[in-house]
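Quick one: structure tokens for this chain, please?
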Amino acid sequence: MIALSIAGCDLFGDDDSGVDCEETLDLDDLDALSQCVEIPGARLNEGNPPPPSNTPNAPVVGRLVGDVTASNGSTLVLPFTYASTAAFAGVYLELGDADYYFDVPRSATFDDNGQVTLPITLPPSLEGGGEFCTSYCIYDAEDRVSNVVTTCVDVLALGSGALQISLSWNTDDTDLDLWVTDPSGTLIYFGNRTSPTGGQLDRDDTDGFGPENIFWLDDTAPDGAYRVEVDYYGGSAVTNYVVTVNAPRTSRRFEGTLRRANDRDLVTVVTKRGDQLQFSSGSADQTAAAPMAGKRPAKAKR
């Protein structure tokens, strides 16, 4: 499965509708939320998506997961299967009963083996927990629309502020871990959840999809370099991950793939100077070369 990528791009900000995505949002207003989530390559349209074609040659979508978990500032991954007699052309997606829907055209980053992962980034300003359901379908090159599938999203209220770094991934029964080494040299991860600089890990997911989340409250993140890594703790599936980095007026997303347990990627190094962030390039698919390989503390599955 291949995820759509806009690595290194700013995500959130004001839009033409007048919605300020930096202001507090909640799940009671899915119209505003629809205008502030980010789906790579998507076009946001008013109204409802076209209905299923209900013809023998219409494409078919299958749900891979029942419910998924996400949070403010994280990227939820939505994996699904499809079958189509004509070329797969794109996805229609709608958040609950919103008066908007997304049209996500097929691109080179869609895998054409019958399985797709769609990343959906929620704004850091989404306040409080709750649930919304998203409905989606695909359309083919002859404009035939598939059946509609619904997946509900359990939204957690996780920490954010001066800096928030989250991790999600696309395979179940897989344990990836988010590691951040802060400017003091302290590694924050499941075995050391806090740093003297104020950094905290407030969620460790042990069995699939994430999110994991490390954050510094407003005015607590010191200047300096933050080394962001993803470690493959346990599992057997080749796994695509998404790391989202949020700060006031800045949000970036990075994607990669880990293939086996003990693999580790350096995703990026974030350098903070006042309210400015710079992002270095990471390295893809590093394998078993990090100092802590083989020395991870044990942790129980939830």
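The longest helix spans residues 30-34.
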